[in-house]
Specification:
The protein is mainly alpha-helical. The protein has a single domain (28-496), classed as Orthogonal Bundle (Myeloperoxidase, subunit C), CATH 1.10.640. Helices cover 31% and strands 3% of the residues. The chain has 16 helices and 6 strands. It has helices at 42-52, 76-88, 95-100, 116-119, 178-198, 205-229, 231-237, 268-271, 353-356, 362-372, 378-384, 411-414, 424-433, 447-462, 468-471, 489-496; strands at 28-29, 70-74, 266-267, 285-286, 296-297, 336-338. Strands 1-3 form a two-stranded parallel ribbon. The longest helix has 25 residues, at 205-229. The chain is globular and about 65 Å long.
Length: 499
Amino acid sequence: MVGKLPRFHGVVRGLNDVGSSPQFEGRFGRMFRTLPPARFTEEDLKSLAARMVAEVEEEEGSENEVDAEEGVIDAGFTYLGQFIDHDLTFDPNSSLQKQNDPEGLVDFRTPRFDLDCVYGRGPDDQPYLYQDDGLRLLLGRPLSGNPHDPNTRDLPRNSPDSGPKRALIGDPRNDENVIVSQLQGIFLRFHNRVVDFVQGTDAIFEDVQRFVRWHYQWVVLHDFLPRIIGRETLESILPHLKKKGGSIRKDKPDLRFYDPKKEQFIPVEFSVAAYRFGHSMVRPEYRLNTTLPNRFPIFPDLVGFGEFPDVWAIDWSLYFDFGKKPPGTGPERVQKAYKIDSSIVNPLGKLPVPIGGKFPSLAERNLLRGLRMGLPSGQEVAKKMEIDPIPDDDLRIGPATEEDHEENPRLVDISPRFRKNAPLWTYILAEAQQQFRKNDTPIHLGPVGGRIVGEVFVGLLLYDKHSFLNQDPTWEPFQDFQKDGKFGMADLITQAMKA
């Protein structure tokens, strides 16, 4: 194992005691504050969690075989989603403070897509994150293994006499696994690339930071979000995106359920249920680069919070489509995330002790947290949205594959108390699964899950006075950074590799 996770990682201070108002002191609120909480027994939720965790995966076949549980979304978007989550839930307090004061509701920053996880508190307050010029971010040791990027760098780390070498970054959670760790490194390098690009324009740190944030926000809005919620749902929230050159002032946004009133907040329906769709997208193994002979299991090999081997540089062309490879199979293909469905891979049901503690099943933790947060059922949320709830006969638990689809048990088969009363997280995953027809069916979040995630993302951008969508809705990424008139995550990585 490479390093260990802090035992209390993932406990967000202020999340365990959320009032019923849409906004209150702190960062968390409710989107559907008048809906009653769904009621379950813990035994029923534990039984459900056990059915949501897949059986131990058999050793994958050859590189020329496609896993039936793979979807069409590139595997890198799983970890971009994790990176985004850490950006939105930035907490300047230590994990120890959060554990000692679980109900504290103050001293949180308003959630924004502002890369606090990269910048920390800035070069004046945290100069050890920056180079001597106060403009560029510090990078770590060279890494090898990516033939397309000989300049790959690790995160800067401390050098204790013993113990793991911790990353010196704005949010320590972005070192929790090898993949998100190196994604953090990409954003550090992208910042430095923008510094180089604007040299000679008298740009100061705040200018560079704004450009970096806007490019990142563009990726979130135009590359990540359409893949996760579907373009139709996104365009129903932002109608101006339906036509090139559309005006957000003429075709106004349609936020029906996310209403910050005074300032932004994170709805618990989003943080505890809808945005946990990414847990179902995690693969049990990943190939890091083509110079290493094997794929690596997520546990224990890819666990972070410490220095990993120098030869583990990630080849990002295995995680995002750069448009240079024909679709197909083999060790150089773009790995795909698992489908968004009501199943999570077996390793997430048996988290290592340093991560899981007394609750090794991630599914069980998600379901029990939803119970304790008083989340409404998926059916109640659907009715509130004026969407016909999914019939009980169609709410099935298990992988979205041709082999398993017809055999997956109904939710009500697990307990009759789930009749018209599904946990919101499970409902949202099962809702996405309704799109399944055959193994290569494109699957994204459905109307309930997609609307929650879409409205929160768009609302956070709209209510952020410093976002590009607020300050300059017609802004586009630097033309030199675009490819064929478009800019996405692969293009951001391409530019980062030039730093």
